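In this supplementary section we document a worked example of the pipeline. Step one takes a protein sequence of length 751 as its only input; no multiple sequence alignment statistics are reported here. Step two produces a three-dimensional model, which step three serialises into structure tokens for compact storage. The input and output of this example are shown verbatim.
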Amino acid sequence: MIPTNSSSSTNGCDSISSNCVIWQGPDIACIDLCSGDTITEVVFKLATEVCTLITDGVVANPSLAGLDISCLNIQGVTPTELVPVLQAMVNQICENSTGGGITGPVIGTSSLSKTAQTTDTLPIMTLPACLQYNDPNGNPVTELRLDLFATLISNQVCTNLASINIINTTLTSYNTRLNVLEACVLPCTGVVAEKQVVPTCILPAVLTDVSVLVLALEVRFCALETAVGLPAAILLTIGQTSLTSATAQLTNPGSNYGSIAGWNSSPVNLAQTVQNAWVVIDDMYTSISNIQLNCCPTGCDSVVFGYTTTNILGTGSTITGINFNFQTSSIPAAFNDCSGSTIITITDINSVAVTSLVSVASLQNDAGGLLINVPTLNTQQDLNVSIAFCATNNIDTCSETQASVIAGVLPCPTGVIASAITSTGATISFPNLLGATATFVIDIINVSTSAVTATFTQNNPTANVSHIFTGLLPNTDYSTRVTVSLNGATTVCSDVALFSSLTAAKACSLGMDVAFIIDYTGSMGSSIDAIKTGAASLVNTIDTSSGANDYRISLVTADEYALSASPIPTYLTSTDYVALPAAQKIINTGTADKQVITAWEMFQTNNGASFTTQLQKLNTGAPTAGVPLGSGSGAPEPTDMALGQIIEASAFTGAFRSNVAKYVIIITDALPGGDDDVFDSTDVARLNSLQSTALLSGIKIFVCGPGTSATYVNGLTTTYPWRDLSINTGGNWNVDEDPSTISAEIIAGCS
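The serialised model returned by step three reads:
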């Protein structure tokens, strides 16, 4: 019920049934009123309570049994009802009062103001909690003299009676208004006076009874609900689509609908669903428009000719065939090659041609393409390709000739190495994969001056080209240039082999710096134990070879483990490992594994004893009492990485001295694997780089163990990487890693 000020309403309220208005206030237990009761129930309960108050009040003369009124000194039988008690109280007051009577309540807790001495006999009454109050001074009043107590009660009764009268008046008003509400059944026109409003949409914009507008709204709402559907049906529609934010767009398949502005990833209402539908419709419209503009040409407009080529290389990396791929062609199903085939012509510089008949219509969807061998052509120089395309559907004939040039290929020789390097000479060799008609010109170039120091021309070469160059300068960097000529083509291959001539040999008696690199993977246990057994003899050999001068020894291990390995190698938690300075511990995260390079002993003067102590810790005990063997993670091991750390990063074990014999002794049973646990062309290049560094520094590399028998196959060429590295740096190799063998190699190197 909403109060209004409408002049057309006699009671200021809209005519609505009280059964349709809900009490939304709190629950009131004393009158059994609950939130959600109708106004009809609320008014009834209030009226019932008021009537009870009236009935059970003074008129009903309620029982006062249990009330202590002995202080009134009532003669005879003490009354137990309200009216006799009140009368006894009045009599008592009158009997004890004189002329002036009681002037009114006196504020206080215990002292009483009297107008006559007879009031001294009146008792003091304790006020119930609901009647206690504060006097003007703020003092609490909890007791009153009987006459003042009676006056206070009388005033309170009068106040209650006044409140009851107000409630009765309000209830009468509510009853009248409820009768009006209940008298109306939409529309209420002609039944009761109603509030009027001016509609703006549903009805004409004139003053209209509210009940008429409400009825029109109901009719319109029902029509709308019928057209749109009930909420359950709408929610079912919202969840019906199979399109999500991840669904690819039709216009731009590389992007999804979630990337379009305005897309609702999780629609929860009809508006969001309709918005998503428009996004999809716009995408479909654009895609269909593109199809209308670009699809389905007719006649020769529908025919597209195209091709790509790929060289097929044979032995020696020369072109032996050409693969033609026609997937860039588009020939409709109704078309076929004219006369059933298309002609491909390949012509070399000597006008020698190779032709082939192919069906482009059949090959246009073949990813493998068509291989045409060209054994009779000069492929070292450019080849001219001509394709006379032709396709017909017996109505339209479409033709087009396309030409292209395939660059000739004259490869540089692979595996060019410098070996047998001395202070004044070197041997340059490489395999010949181009045949006996090729010509090779080998130039040795001084890197610092760019001058050609020596040259050699090899005509009618055999399967291997090799030449010994002399007259070189000691301790000089050289590069090798090979010029290849074949079938009128020429290729210049620079810097195919870098090397440095050796310095004048320094006697081991001037002192020695010897670095040991030990492969510390799982297969090396027995080898390490043998070296430990012969440690004393190794130290003695180095000491003796150094003569009266100082020697220095360092010790490095190389290991690796898989990135996902669990647990990691146990020695990483060893007390001995943990105690090492951080600069002596390298753990590198490679492409497939983690490489562990550890410097157990640094270069120190005459440190045979400490070297032996550190060596003896290897392959022993548990982590807290030794250094257990690592495991490795594949055949190749990171020994080349350890070599680089020693000869390229002097801080790892200390720098080699310049005026002494410099040795690196590698003990391993496998090829080096860098950071990827695989030996390939990348590792070949790395060993060549380390070889150049060693030569420039005068470092001889000795490799011992089964790893020296490991080979690398590149095409038709098989090499021994460890053997080549050791020989080319002036060192040596041996399949045996016994300490006596190592000592013999040291002595031989010193000789």
